[in-house]
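hey all, quick one before standup. I had two proteins in the batch that finished overnight and I want to keep them in one place so we stop losing track of which output belongs to which input. First protein below, input sequence then structure tokens straight from the run.
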Amino acid sequence: MTLTQDVLPNDFIEQLRTAYPGLASLPFEHQFELTRMIWGASIKGRFHKHFDDALSFHYADLDEAFGRGGFSRINDQFQFFDVSTNWSAQDGWTRGYRFSSKLEELFGSYQRACPAVTTLLRSNGTACRIPYKAIGSKDLRGSNATRWPSCPHLNQVPVSIGALEELRSELLELLENSAAPERDHYKSRLNRWLSVTAFVLRMSLSTSAGRGYMAHRYIEAESGRLYAQGLSLQNAPRLVKTAALDGTWEYDFSNCHYTIFEQMCRRQGYNCVAIRDYLNAKNSVREAIAEKARISIAQAKECLIAIMYGASTTLWHKNAIPMAIGVDAAKRLFSVPLFRALREEIKGGTKAVLSSWPRQQNGRLCNEVGKAIVPSARQMQKMAHLIQGVEARALKCALELFPEEILLLQHDGFAARSRLDTKAVSERVSEVTGYQLLLEEVRLRFANSDVGLMAQAEELNENRKASEK
């Protein structure tokens, strides 16, 4: 589970040792792993897809970290997690891991306490004195990573401590005034935002990165995409990221996946009429789909991205779209002609692109950044691999042009300390890749008055999904 570059705050490890006598007698690597399991509870990828408010850990990862059966013995002794007895190999979900009442109280008090400067520890117990390099030299498979422009400052993202503290105070106040049990979805969202805010604040007050800087390290995926390790501003909730990067500029390649896909199809002579109409009027198309399906515009956007990545349009409740918006809403969505037309063009276009894409001698498809994918991969996995290769190359183009200005890397965009020349980036991308991609820009401005409204909107969405399941 642990990567050699993982770091955790020493003050939280010490708090756990104080609360759980005997914990300090365990090998430090086991103390570190337990702390990491708790510390990473706000990472969306850890959320259980079957049990509400539970985390997911694969038994093989636990055995690798603690030895066979080691986690169960430690958890029996200290009672960190309440663990469900059931799991499903068929549906692909693990046992559910929930904080015990003692651990939940301890972690909550840590989040609510005023953060102080702390030392970050490595998995071997030594202090991390300087941040690791921004981009790992090996990808997730252990192969050499694609050569990225040298941007040494990317490992230290400057954040607004003042805006984060404002957000933290606002979240605490909202939680104190929302005691009604019927508002569980509302409180759950506030608590998650508080947890991530506390994490970012702690990691921005370390002795290694320095006050007001959050260490980031990126690892290259099989497609060439860069993923930040652990909880980061790359995968933080929008509200927290806006507070942390208050005053900076955020850039996204406009409707990146659909734009690349349509141009790939056009090169193969496949005409994507519905997708082109969507790209020419994306806001009105999303609004029309949302209105007919009676879902939010944000949900419509999420579902449109999901079908680009191969999400099924069947109503089985475990599929991605029914899980995201509820079975009844999915049924309405799948009957919307606009949505169905987009889905059919994605299927036809995928077949056209993959059938004509050149193969290596071993049958693998190679994408824009030279990353290959195995022939046994599913059709939509191959398509995503090709699209993400163009996306990664476009991000490289931006880095080559503005290596000192860009602060944070995202999958199809980035954040910069000042306003950039978007036309220059688009021209460089076109020159290097042949794809026409436009950049959208927005100035990130945090306003604590928006926090309650955002939480209420999330609450309405969660309640709607719950009522339709």
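OK second protein, same deal, sequence then tokens:
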Amino acid sequence: MCERMTAAVLYRHGGPEALELRTDWPLPSVGPGQVLVRVGATAVNNTDVWTREGAYGLHGRPEAKAGWRGAVNFPRIQGGDIAGVITATAADVPDSWVGRRVLVDPAFYADAREDAVPVGLLGSEADGGFASYVAVDAAHVHDMSASPLSDQELAALPVAYGTAMGMLERSRIRSGETVLVTGASGGVGLALVQLAAARGARVVALTSQSKAAALQEAGAEVCVFRKTDPVALRRRLEAVAPEGLDAVADVAGGPWLEQFLPSLRDGARWVIAGAVAGPVVTFDLRRLYLHNLSLIGSSMHTRAHFASLADLARAGTVRPRIAGSYRLTDIHAAQEEFRRGTHVGKIIIVP
């Protein structure tokens, strides 16, 4: 095997120029308990762009350049979504794994429990999948030999669908409930629509009018539109859910919290995993406690959440929508399309 590979390497926080394509990057070594995966496909996520830009801020310093866990150790190969084939194993890992097609859980966890919280991510705290090969812990690979999904479809799952699974599980969204999904046409939003509909929830998607058909195809029963007058929008929600929404799965943040809080029934849940519409919000705390509402923060997934997602992938229960596919050598063009936000589904990168 050649000891060099192609990789997109992030050298610092900044614009697209901070991400450099290298064709001579050292092949990763396999440490104890690890396997070497030849990357078949990966995908673009908000976290890739925000980490490059240093857009996460620090506690008390929201303007500071930082990754989601603080300082990033440069140089770094990004890419938390990884589907591929195992080509080598460490001495303490059975070599029967060699040749298997796998999906990689990208999270690092606080401890060994199945419900441990994530404290790191491939592509942020360790090198990820924007490369020909990646070394990962064997405990994080899930055998996809029996999955009907392609490598590109599998690569759409880990970050976006893992985050969506975490949101649905932490907010206990069940069959028969009415849930509003904000930012519904993005990677996590579309995953929420598909996964919530798959468990029997009634999905209301907040989106733009041009993307409504794609979201209804994905499982949304009703679409409401962002540019609608706020009063008319609230009346539309009242008509859709006369007793109030059971839950909101929010990946946008910003003004939607204050605007839609009155649309929740007593005892409802609001789970949030993003802030693309604004990270700093105001709302009336009295509406929260007087109506016994739950505001839940959700970052990524647990081991148990990801195992459930892997089961769905093996069964082909959920098929991600692929919005576009690029070669690794065209990663800047892939991220440019991603930032335009005109797509519905995942943008895939194939090494």
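Flagging for whoever picks this up: Residues 157-170 form the longest helix (14 residues). The mean pLDDT is 93.
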